[in-house]
Amino acid sequence: MTSSGAEGGSSAGPDAGRDQAAARPAAAEPGGAQADVWTVLRMILWSADYLRGKGIESGRLDAEHLLAHVVGVDRLQLYLEFERPLTLQELDGFRPILRRRAAREPLQYIIGHQPFRDLVLEVTPAVLIPRPETEVLVDRILEEVRDDHRREGTVLDLGTGSGAIALSLAFEGSFASVVAIEVDGSALEVAHRNRKAAGLDAAVELRLGSMFEPLHESERFDVIASNPPYVADPELAWLEPEVGEWEPRGALFAGPDGLDVLRQIVAGAGAHLEHGGLLALEVGAEQARVVAGLLEDDGRYEQVRVLRDYAGRERFVFANAADGK
């Protein structure tokens, strides 16, 4: 890598670093062998410009997260260290992960974790990165069961991935037990580590298998929740590289219309819900009304309703198990 020094070859102070970083071409890279002072602020500004040049709109924020990860401080702590020169060790640690982000590898996979509600979850390329919409799904479930018997009942999470839904419900709710199923063994290993880190080994049972297969025929639950794959196969061409090229396709795609897995859940959940039990699903944009129709046509569900996320989008479909299922 070549050094990007100040004009004339002299070391730049913080203010000069800010001005020069804004004008520096993205091809130049910091931290070479020449004596050159790279302060925290100068590195953030240069890296933000570099990442934006690679098509990453959140370049400044991502640069701050990456640098905080290398330095070993909270991102906001960097604001108190803007004028501090970075050490050679910090520069050596930062360069490769900056390149990884420039190659559109998701920030969460690089730093290895993602906050989710009250937890911080380990994430790897084996699992889908938990989204804010799924945080809302958990919130809606807790609201639904807050004032009835299901708040102390049993929960099933289908396709748990990192464990986000199951672990959050166990951590925040008062459920008697939570069972989480995942078909991918590598993803289930991540869920195991997240369960241990959250201190929920006794509260959440993890099972390997596809959909309802790991369940006993007689098992019934008060809540069945899922954030299943729901992206239509043709949409791959329009996805951001961070999603389409990095996240596990088995956790994303579900056939030509994105409904293959949701149809399986609608068909199978009725046999494993207690009377009045709650089925709570996250669905894709424009899918909510279709999934609601599937539930209504099935005949084993009642009180089918479409719920919105905090942006007002129809992203969740809830229903209850009817009599005589």
Task: Report on the architecture of this protein.
This protein folds into two domains: 7-103, Helicase, Ruva Protein, domain 3; 124-321, Rossmann fold. Residues 1-27 have low confidence and may be disordered. The protein is elongated. It has helices at residues 14-23, 40-53, 59-71, 88-102, 107-111, 132-145, 164-172, 185-197, 241-244, 260-269, 288-298; strands at 113-116, 119-122, 154-158, 177-182, 204-208, 221-226, 273-282, 301-308, 314-321. The chain has 325 residues and is an alpha/beta fold. β3, α7 (164-172) and β4 form a beta-alpha-beta unit. It starts with 13 loop residues before the first helix and ends with a strand. It has eleven helices and nine strands.
CATH-assigned fold name of the largest domain: Rossmann fold
Shape: elongated
Per DSSP, what share of the residues sits in E-state strands of 2 or more residues? 15-25%
- In the CATH hierarchy, what is the class of the largest domain? Alpha Beta
